Amino acid sequence: MNGSRIISKFILLGLVLLAASSLALAADVNVSKLIGQGEGKASAAPDIATIVLGVETRNASASAAAAENAELMNATVNALRAAGIKDKDIQTSRYSLTTEPQEKPKEGEKPKAPEFIATNQVTVRLNDTSDVGRILDAAVLAGSNSIQEVSFDLRNPKPQEDKALAHAIEDAGRKAEVAANAAGVKLGRVLELTEGYRYVAPAAKSAVFTDGAITPIQPGEMVVTSSVTITYEIS
Fold it and tell me: Which of 14, 28, 143, 185 keeps 20 to 30 A from 219, CA to CA?
């Protein structure tokens, strides 16, 4: 008998809680809302760099193109090592041996012999952005004739991401306040806060190649951008 009463009490309590929850949901549906969107940025100097470089050779003989490429690429990798780059920071990112597309010969002409193109590229990671120019010059002097990319990044972007997010929330709140004042309403509690996009990008193009003793490379700054959407109750 006592067990039945206890079960009945639990059932009654569950029904009360369910009803209260339903009322709360219904109340939220009828609440007047204002949505504010904000964006925040935070910058910092990059502390790592990535270089994509390599060797491209051409020859009517596939084996000759590959052999010349191997010789120049070995010299390039040895130069990178001599410049202080560790093996774990040098990774082959592309190797190919292809032929140059040939135009269709005109009537009466013999087709040209195909030219073979050997390409070998490595991706080099640097932990000191001030070394980029010196490393590039060492690679070129050793035989590298293809520099595809120089990019910079942050080893740990979390502190800048947190700052950017805080600025985005402040920006969304400021915009919501302006909108509320213009509409003659007052902001209330925050009903929902949703983080949107987040990305890290250089503030400007930072690789500059010119003639000189050492190729000048300017790391510039990395900018972290974050966005949020905040929904406020208004009255």
Answer: 143
What SS3 state is found at 115?
A: coil
CATH hierarchy code of domain 48-153: 3.30.70.2970
Nearest-angstrom CA–CA distance, 48 and 221: 12
Q: Which CATH number fits domain 29-45+157-234: 1.20.1290.10, 3.30.70.270, 3.30.110.170, 3.90.1150.10?
A: 3.30.110.170
> What pLDDT, in 10s, does the model give residues 5-62?
444 444 444 443 444 444 444 445 567 999 999 999 999 999 999 999 999 999 999 9
- Output the DSSP codes for 157-211: -HHHHHHHHHHHHHHHHHHHHHHHHHHT--EEEEEEEEEEEEEEEESS--B---S
Tokens of 58: 């051409």
pTM comes to: 0.72
